[in-house]
Design brief:
With 552 residues, the chain is an alpha+beta fold. The protein has three domains: 73 residues, no CATH class; 131 residues; 244 residues, Orthogonal Bundle (MetI-like fold), CATH 1.10.3720. It is 59% helix and 15% strand. It has 16 helices and 13 strands. Helix 7 packs parallel to helix 10, helix 8 packs across helix 10 and helix 9 packs across helix 10. The longest helix has 47 residues. The two termini are 46 Å apart.
Length: 552
């Protein structure tokens, strides 16, 4: 009994309890990440396509599709839900969720009962076609046409399809370059000229010479635009040239224009190595492509770009503000009730719900500050808002305020750990207080500053609620960074991985099709946050090693 009491007094049980709690927490975290990774990354694997004979309403039909998931339900639930007729004596029924694709022709997901499947195989000539819209398409390739005339059929159609699909991809790239590159640049310059003309009118400087100069530039841009417009029309006519015929599961033969094709595969005829290569290509496409079909298809590059850009801008804004505030509170302010009250307020700000910061950002930054900036510096653009509307800068400032308490507290703790002897030694050698802080104190407290920045990045990168009010959108047609002056457009709206997850997961018209992308995007968001934090951690460790000798 005494041994048990001594054991409890030693505190060892609490050590084991803490270790167990940490272990359970780690298992939960890694288990959740593993679930997200498996569900999300598995989406890019080219699974086998099955063809089955299925008994439905007393008659057999052919079903072609990809197995998504399966579940086993009890007989009572099966009967109550009206899924079909139970097999005699069955207590459980296995159901399969099959992605049949071809959303433009029929429902693209179906639940099938295992006992009604009469035959099942995986023909090697079954084709999976990824399209610009309407999702995946499953069927058999019958023939390839050019201008409505057949050029290949049967086995030769597959090789011909590959050649023409590469041509379509090249044409799509040219069209995208013209529309978003050259034509987009011309439209941007024309808008600048329009605003310049209006600015001259508002300032009573609209002289004949100034107007003539603007009109000359507009005419030159219009000539270039008309030439590009003709070139773009020719490309659109070329890309509509080819089409292909496919037989679908109900026996119909449908014709699809190749301009809607993204990629085409025969997954049942591919070996593991070929599927691995295709997996890498599909994942890279997910990272670098733009979203399609209400964000349920395509890639997430604009969301990745917007997330990283916003976090970097937020870091640039919050670090000097937090450091200056912490230096004042620790090094300059006279310690007393007022400073203690300020510290309590700073700590309490860390617990304010993020949506409150969003409302503040919308009211103060967007409507008040942005609206006044528009009236002072951009009157020619009114009533269209320039900075008086949600955008990248206001989102970054809002999140900088949200994470400011974290940086202040972390920096103050770092400043408090600097020995007083270093300050006194620097002052004794003739340095001013500012020089002491700038050249001795701040460099030594830089690891603590980086720790605050790491915590700020971890919180800001995953925030969604305030961003919905101050800049993030479902789809941003233009990135905040491009080749047009001033290159970085802080007034533009942007996409964000966190909001993308919310939009795809809860606003999607096709939940089953969007579910894998929710997991994939969530895993990608975690990966982006980890990479940002690792970069900051490596810099912090470097600074810690650099100033370790001075601390000793």
């Amino acid at each position: 009994m005494n041994n048990v009491k001594e054991w409890w007094r030693s505190g060892e049980p609490w050590i084991w309890l803490n270790a167990g709690a940490v272990s359970v927490s780690m298992l939960v975290v890694f288990g959740l990440l593993a679930l997200i990774a498996v569900r999300g990354l598995g989406h890019f694997w080219a699974g086998d396509i099955i063809e089955m004979r299925y008994l439905s309403n007393g008659s057999e039909e052919t079903i072609i599709g990809e197995l998504v998931e399966s579940e086993t339900i009890n007989a009572q639930r099966f009967s109550e839900s009206g899924y079909g007729v139970l097999p005699p004596g069955a207590t459980e029924v296995k159901r399969l969720l099959i992605k049949t694709g071809n959303r433009d022709l029929y429902a693209d997901f179906r639940w099938l009962t295992d006992h009604n499947i009469k035959a099942l195989n995986t023909p090697e000539d079954l084709i999976v076609l990824e399209r610009v819209e309407w999702g995946d398409f499953y069927g058999y390739l019958k023939q390839v046409n050019e201008q409505g005339q057949m050029v290949a059929e049967g086995e030769a159609a597959w090789d011909e399809l590959q050649i023409r699909l590469a041509r379509v991809a090249d044409l799509h790239a040219e069209i995208k370059y013209l529309e978003r590159g050259e034509i987009g640049s011309i439209n941007y310059k024309l808008e600048d000229l329009r605003l310049a003309r209006k600015k001259l009118e508002l300032s009573n400087n609209a002289t004949a010479e100034n107007i003539a100069r603007i009109e000359k530039q507009e005419k030159a841009l219009d000539v270039k635009y008309q030439r590009l417009r003709v070139q773009l029309a020719e490309l659109h006519n070329e890309i509509k040239r080819d089409s292909a015929h496919f037989q679908i599961m109900d026996g119909r033969v449908v014709e699809l224009p190749m301009e809607t094709f993204v990629s085409v595969l025969k997954p049942n005829a591919m070996n593991v190595f070929q599927k691995m290569i295709n997996y890498v290509h599909a994942f890279i496409a997910f990272l670098v492509d733009d979203p399609r079909e209400a964000n349920t298809e395509g890639g997430v590059f604009p969301a990745i770009f917007g997330t990283v850009m916003m976090v970097l801008l937020m870091s640039v804004l919050v670090t000097p503000l937090g450091v200056i505030a912490a230096v004042y509170l620790r090094e300059y302010a006279r310690q007393g009730p007022v400073i203690r009250l300020i510290r309590i307020a700073v700590n309490n700000l860390a617990g304010v719900p993020s949506i409150v910061y969003g409302v503040f950002g919308l009211g103060f930054f967007v409507y008040f500050l942005g609206g006044n900036l528009d009236r002072l510096f951009f009157p020619e653009a009114l009533p269209a808002a320039t900075f008086g509307t949600p955008g990248l800068m206001w989102a970054s400032l809002t999140l900088a305020l949200l994470t400011l308490p974290v940086v202040i507290v972390s920096t103050e703790e770092g400043l408090a750990r600097i020995p007083s002897s270093l300050r006194e030694g620097s002052l004794a050698l003739g340095a001013t207080k500012f020089e002491t802080i700038w050249k001795v104190i701040l460099p030594m407290s830089s690891p603590a500053i980086m720790t605050g920045l790491i915590l700020a990045v971890a919180r800001a990168a995953g925030e969604v609620a305030p961003l919905m009010l101050v800049g993030v959108v479902k789809l941003a047609p233009e990135l905040p960074l491009d080749g047009n002056m001033p290159f970085l457009h802080l007034d533009r709206k942007f996409m964000h991985l966190g909001f993308h997850i919310f939009d795809v997961g809860f606003q999607s018209p096709n939940v089953e099709a969007a579910r894998p992308l929710v997991y994939a995007t969530a895993f990608l968001l975690v990966l982006v946050i980890v990479l940002l934090n690792l970069s900051a951690i490596m810099l912090r460790n470097h600074l810690r090693e650099k100033y370790k000798a001075l601390e000793n």
